[in-house]
Amino acid sequence: MTASITIDPQRAIGQIDSNIYGQFLCRRRGVADGGLYAPEHPDADETGLRKTVVEAIAATGTPIVRWPGGCTGTSYHWQDGIGPQAERDRTIDVHFGYDVSNGFGTAEFVAFCRRIGAAPHLNLNTGLGTLKDAVEWLEYCNFTTPSRWANRRRADGYDEPFNVQYWQIGNENYGPWEIGHQSPGEYAIMAREWAKTLKKMQPDLKVLAVGGSERVTDWDLAVLEQALPHIDYLTAHRYWNFDGAIDDDQYGTIAGIGYLEEQITRSVAEQIELVARDLKTNHRPKIAFTEWNCRNMQQREMSRAWSPNGTQYRLTDALAVAGFLNMMQRQCQTVGLGSFAQSINVVGMLMVNDEHVVRETIYWPLVLLRKYSGPRALDAWTECDGYSAEFRGRTVRGIPYLDVSATATEAGDRVFVSIVNRHRHDALETEIRLRDVRVAAGGTLHRLWHENPNTRNTIARPDAVAPATESLRATSDRFTVSLPPHSYSILELPLGQ
Fold first, then answer.
1. Which residue of 105, 186, 192, 432 shows the fewest CB atoms closer than 10 Å?
2. For the chain, which residues make up each domain, given as ranges?
């Protein structure tokens, strides 16, 4: 099969916000509690964090990390996680009904973020918590005043404020499974009042309101009509499920990316524009995917008492993750933040138990695209065959075999082309066409591939699926590259005249 990709470096779509490469780290067992913070573990450093886990997360170059939840955040009382660690009681995670440590609290989370070069993103408790709790947490984190909670932070040993800029109001409040479940109208009014109050205290904060799901079609509009002037992001959670018992459901798993992209461009973004125009404001909140990933439905019910003993993701799932990253780059005008769910275990990019830290297949697209990508999204015209597949009970048609995102450095001296070949069996001989420029020094190819798309990284074979790099022989404005079936490739092209 053949295909072509045409790129004009002068045709920029827009600027990519690096926050789309963020991570999500909840406080539940096996994640922050035990997966990252494990002070009794032989690999733990003086702060109680497992060094190997910290290094693996840092290698993704994530610019922002969300915590403490998720569902575990809607009942989290932040005062349980401050003060001397030895004096903090274990408490019940109300969502899951088990006891958890509070040794990893606000100060420890902020220190972890600073350590890996990421901004902290805190999620407010709207289930058991109140607006009073929220503003007091903000005071504790950010204020320098001689007031109660700022004084308490100083008494805890932190003279300088934490300067947390990103604050999210709740989590999946639309869902009946969530503590603090609300109707669209109830949450919309609460989001307005909480966001308004947070901004009164600190106007430069970035405030995120919970967006809806496909289950509650009128949610987003209700929230935007009430809260749009006061929020900076409207969140969305997107998981695409696969049956861990089925080894060859590649087309169904990957099909959802195009469907989700259509939802963004034709639904959420249009509602933001509509409400902003009605309110006669130039303010346009961005979309924030504060949870997104593939999800193994076989292991979903295991999450209550998570005890990992093996990996769950295949090369196929890594291709879906790469496609979602491509999509966020392409939609940079409306998508401004992403929190990959999650960093550790459950639906994590790392499988962590007492003996091992294994990089799942899905880990590698997160590393590759962050490392080999520019801040300017470019228009890329792709010509190739396509297919149809089932996704969430719908037939999605016209899915191209190649999923492509092109980016450039700010200086315009280098172009990166991120390509997923979704075809299960066939390689695609693909012509790359550059407009008014040529490749200066051959270029480099970074590739994630295995002959079997169902291959997993395992404890016994942790690098079964891992990236490889090779030189490209390209010195003109046109060249051909062979894209193996079920593969992910990034072309790194230095440009000349």
1. 186
2. 2-11+376-496, 17-371
